[in-house]
Amino acid sequence: MQIKPYVQTEEDNLITLRRWFHAHPEPSGQEFETAKKIASELDKLGIPHQQIGETGIAATIRGEKPGTGKIIVLRADTDALCITDLKDVPYASENTGYCHACGHDVHIAALLGAAKVLQEKRGEFAGEVRLFFQQAEEIGDGAKHFIKAGLLEGAYRVFGGHVMPTLDSDKVAIVGGPRNASSDYFKMDVKGRSAHAATPDKGTDALYIAAQIVNNLQSIVARNTHPIDSVLVSIGKLNAGTQYNSLAEHASLEGTTRAFTPELRRRTNESVKRIAEETAKLFGGTAEVSIKHFAPPLINDSTVAAEACKIAAPILGEENILTTYDQALWADDFADLLGEVPGVYILVGTKDPAQDTQIPLHHGLFDVDEKALLTFCNLYVDFALHYMD
Questions:
Q1: pLDDT for position 202
Q2: What per-residue confidence (pLDDT) applies to 32?
């Protein structure tokens, strides 16, 4: 690994920043102190910035070299999870019940480090680097604010990524085509008619209907989708009833759908609604279904992915760049940005090669090999410089 000297000098700063963000996690849409810290760091560097939504920040570094140059967008997400931090480390979460168990603290620190390097190098390039510190990725609500603000207008390339605990910290995965699935949320309100449990024929059991809906929804994957296609329908929450010896008059279900193409996404969501409504009707009840679209399928531009491999090679060595890697059914609203501008979303390894196992994402013990900070920061910097030169 040949981390560039202009990034190597930032190692202590990157670690300090990452640990501050790790100790101060905030949930989606409530990243107020996170945004203040980011703004403070940008102010120290003399980088102009603006608030996007309530807790997002967009910053701009303008090259001073003569010429128009290109506009390059670098993105990091900033929200944490409603998960208790279980680690016994000095930088453990100070906000009870919240934890950066998805590694967004690494993303923020790496982009702030890149901002410092690019600001120092602004005399070497023409054009503009736009830095997106994006809120609310976990609920698919952040990227759209940056799009609405017109911050992708004129952009030539967009670059982002995510830490990956299944990859060693000296490796990255850069793969063109569909990488992550769409993510949509559904809620169902099932209505029946209460009656004594001893006389079920006098009522309509909303709990029984809800159970049938849970079973029937699995037919979407098993019988309504081509066996080669990957689709997921999961129900994570079911509430029903108020009394052990009464039929439930109401039931509610919440879940998610995932798919790798827009067509499969549309068809899957339509099937969820149809099956729920018709199952409820079959048993004498009703079901009202609402669906919220969190993120579209994340599809890397193959040309940009190939370009990113060439950019990463001098840093990591070609042998440490994976150009094939399993698709993931988890989602990222970076996909919204890719829908506007050609770009690439990479996976940066965070597993310590000396360890046999690594705690997975979204676990209270999740942590990273902090060498990955240098890799991520260097990729941010060199991705921008490659197109600005």
A1: 97
A2: 98
